Amino acid sequence: MKNIYMLLNEISTDTSRYSDTEFSEADLQKYRTQIRKRFRKKRKRAAYAVLAFAACLVLAVGIMVSRPAKQRMSASMRTGIYTMSSMLGVSGDLEDYALHIDKSREIAAGAVTLNSVAMDDGQIMIYSTYVYDRSDLAPRLSTGSWGRAYDDSFEETVSWLSVPEKRPKKMNPFYLEYVDAQVQPYVQKLYLDGEELICDVTAEIYASEDGILQETVQYNFDTTKLEFPVQAKLEIYSAENTADPEAAFEFILEKDMVVPNIKDVSMEEAIELLDGKQLVITRFVYNAMGMRFYARYPEGVPTERVRHCLESIEQEYGFEIFHETMISDTESVFTTTSGTMYSAVRGMEQWEFKFVTWLPFAEDGQRQKVMSDRIITVPLE
Predict the structure, then answer these.
(1) Is 135 helix (H, G, I), strand (E, B) or coil?
(2) Who's near 167: CB < 8 A, 6+ residues apart?
(3) How far from 194 is each of 122, 130, 197, 322, CA to CA, in Å?
(4) Closest residue by Cα to residue 217 from 287, 162, 144, 153
(5) Ranges in the chain, pLDDT < 50
(6) Does pTM surpass 0.90?
(7) CA dihedral 26, 20, 247, 178 (to 10 degrees)
(8) Which tens digit of pLDDT belongs to each residue from 143-196?
(9) In angstroms, rounded to a whole number, what is the distance separating the alpha carbons of residues 253 and 317?
(10) Average pLDDT over the chain, rounded to an integer
(11) Element (H, E) at 75
């Protein structure tokens, strides 16, 4: 991976000799409509790549036209990977349902673009781009996150951003150590029909190029309870000041935006925990937005601060880990951050997992891993 980055750094990115092409909002809307119609038609599998690339270009244009002309070509090159993976998701099927907004607002640190919104029956995901006036605030390859628990107030939102620094004294001359950045990333507050959405929220952030942050925010809640259409309002706040928003976006969530589940498996797998209580795996969901498990604690959550994971034991296709997040006092969701086995799930007859408990950190800074002998089987046929 490091060799790839070294090669990319040697490629010239001087775009001053290229002219800019202006696109009106009517042009963008026409292109979006044409692409959406093409996606909704029955198509051969080979057509997915071409159409996805076309949609990616439209998204890139939406970002470019909201910025100064000299930055547009550069922006499209820098955000290409992100728009392909995050805007369209792990499957081209998501393009049938995603709402592309591509609107920009000024903020104190620069500008923010609300790119796309997607949702299924258990989550809303919002994709955004932040461009800082000072590129040193978010150097290339920076990573970060922000979020809050289902029962925390917005003022308690925690955020962080780390930047890579070389440590040449290490054995590996390319060794990178991540240290805290000068700033914290911006955070969001989402309103649905005028009421703040209170739920578990997790944001993953990646700096694809100097001064450009790509952000994916996941709101975990039951969207089947919504009465469509829903008037949504997204407010953007500085992490240092959660009292006054710096920008806001409004959009409408429609029922036909809900991504259908390709596989929705009901389960009743009871697991005995280390403290004698039980956790019951109740459901496995797989769709164009990803895959996850749901679970409940019929006797309450563990008294000890432990972490639970589901580790796949699939030998033919690869390895996957699902990490637990509490979404209520008695319910949790297990989600994966890698998706290495996503494409294999459609053709699998079943998927087997082991339940893992990570104990609290010991005095030496280590954490003990306890692997259960229990095999959890998900029927996928």
Answers:
(1) helix
(2) 175, 176, 177
(3) 20, 25, 9, 34
(4) 144
(5) 1-21, 23, 29, 31-90
(6) no
(7) 140
(8) 999 999 999 999 989 999 998 887 766 566 667 788 888 889 999 999 999 999
(9) 36
(10) 79
(11) helix 69-78
Please provide the DSSP assignment of 290-307 as one string.
EEEEEEE-TT-S-SS--E
- Helix (H, G, I), strand (E, B), or coil: what is residue 73? helix
Residue with tokens 């935006």: 257
CA distance 125 to 88: 12
- Using CA atoms in the order 167, 169, 171, 177, what is the torsion angle rounded to 10 degrees? -20
Structure token digits, residue 7: 């090669």
Residues 6+ apart with CB under 8 A from 145: 159, 160, 202, 203, 204, 205
Question: pLDDT by residue (tens digit) across 34-73?
Answer: 444 444 443 333 333 333 333 343 334 343 333 333 332 2
128/114 Cα distance (integer angstroms): 5
47-64 helix and 69-78 helix, angle to the nearest 10 degrees: 150
How many CB atoms are closer than 10 A to CB 376? Answer: 19
DSSP class of residue 29 equals H
